[in-house]
Specification:
heterodimer, A: 113 residues, mainly beta, 4-stranded antiparallel sheet, 51% strand, globular, B: 116 residues, 6-stranded mixed sheet, 53% strand
Amino acid sequence: NAGVTQTPKFQVLKTGQSMTLQCAQDMNHEYMSWYRQDPGMGLRLIHYSVGAGITDQGEVPNGYNVSRSTTEDFPLRLLSAAPSQTSVYFCASKRQGSPYEQYFGPGTRLTVT
Amino acid sequence: AQSVTQLDSQVPVFEEAPVELRCNYSSSVSVYLFWYVQYPNQGLQLLLKYLSGSTLVKGINGFEAEFNKSQTSFHLRKPSVHISDTAEYFCAVSEISNFGNEKLTFGTGTRLTIIP
């Protein structure tokens, strides 16, 4: 199993550009989520999904869109990038139900200039 | 709403010395508690978790944590650290609430640096 994969690993965008961060998992997990990690702020939840066709907002959803058309994929879209979105983005997945651990991808480092 | 506080942003420790990383949480309902570790330039991996039962939880790499409900704490300990333990450690909490809505809230992290 590859686990949780994310592409790209690094990305530089100009303000106003759009892009999609890809996330895929091969563990048949129902729950998937996106976090951003900023120095001194830990990880903050952007969006999450409890299954195909079902998504919801997390703590910091503004400026990001998500969709979940399949169990495996959960892309994160930046419609108009801003410097405040410079961060490291992590995708995670887990089986449904609180006790199960979340498995994290390796992250995407995004810089917006 | 749930929240997690990690008061120590950086902890330097000499090799083979003991270490304790502190974590306090706030929640109006019962919670599950987790410690995750992030090695340099990597994603997060689970170190240990408390779900119920014994308040002393053992994890990977010789780490353990103790759940203290009265003090709402979940401190992480290791009796003797190694260079390889250099990493950032995150405490996280998940409220036991509606099925399918189990959000994980992270603390701000503690950077553990092992001094040879």
